[in-house]
Design brief:
- The chain is α/β, with parallel strands linked by helices.
- It is 36% helix and 15% strand.
- The protein folds into two domains: 35 residues; 201 residues, Rossmann fold (3-Layer(aba) Sandwich), CATH 3.40.50.150.
- The protein has a seven-stranded mixed sheet with strand order 3-2-1-4-5-7-6, sandwiched between helices.
- A hairpin with a 5-residue loop joins β6 and β7.
């Protein structure tokens, strides 16, 4: 840290200090060569990632590093029996990456209303009292997701609002549940329904846990798992929870 930056830190406001820490962290990462896209980072050269990245060209959605995390998770579950559930599909980018990397025989159950987000609640308010999202945000066409995933035969769409559609898989067993619904209520409802169906050794992944835009999703995970399991938070903004072996 430069002397001027150190002095500035003393007199800076809380927000200014936070921004300075971010700049310093980014600088340190660049100088140390740890930046996620640095040439010596091999994740983006893995064959399963390159295959998915090429096939998903033109499908907007979650960022490449988060897609890679999902691929790594599903590959780690190769010996764990159970299907995959994804709550929040949108255009199907994350699904495409998981399907491309998954070597096990399982069905992907995809839940989305394709009408955007429901109305946020008080639990979705940001620290300043505002709400980032409004009802209908992030809507897309169901046909787009179906077309993007049309090359896979092990996909089952469940169209409608969570939790109304979840009962379609009641009694199922799941190796992985990926939750990307941004808001508190659908995140909570997804966890309450699926956690009992996750097999021992299976995992739940939150896409929104580390996003300042989605405080409700983080709150839902923290509250639900407070007495159940530890949450592993990643710098990609995701969070992982593994169900203990029986």
């Amino acid at each position: 840290m430069k002397v001027s930056e150190a002095i500035g830190m003393i007199f800076a406001s809380t927000e200014e200090k936070r921004n300075l820490r971010r700049r310093l962290a980014r600088r340190a990462a660049r100088e140390a060569g740890y930046y996620i896209y640095s040439d010596h980072m091999v994740w983006k050269e893995q064959p399963f990632f390159e295959k998915a990245w090429t096939g998903a060209t033109g499908i907007p959605g979650i960022a490449d590093p988060r897609c890679f995390v999902l691929q790594s998770v599903i590959r780690s579950l190769a010996q764990v029996k159970g299907d995959v559930a994804e709550c929040g599909v949108r255009r199907g980018r994350s699904t495409y990456f998981m399907l491309t990397a998954d070597e096990a025989e399982r069905t992907y159950h995809l839940f989305d209303a394709f009408e955007g987000l429901p109305e946020p609640t008080e639990d979705d308010r940001l620290a300043d009292g505002s709400v980032r999202w409004t009802e209908g945000d992030l809507s897309t066409e169901e046909a787009v997701a179906r077309e993007n995933l049309s090359g896979f035969s092990n996909v089952s769409f469940h169209v409608g609002w969570i939790p109304q559609t979840l009962t379609a898989v009641a009694g199922g067993s799941f190796a992985l549940v990926h939750i990307d619904v941004d808001l508190h209520a659908p995140t909570r409802d997804s966890l309450e329904f699926f956690w009992p169906l996750v097999v021992p050794g299976g995992m739940v992944v939150s896409d929104d846990y580390g996003s300042r835009k989605c405080p409700g999703a983080r709150k839902a995970f923290d509250e639900f798992f407070a007495d159940k399991a530890g949450i592993i938070e990643l710098p990609t903004g995701q969070a992982l929870v593994r169900k203990a072996e029986a």
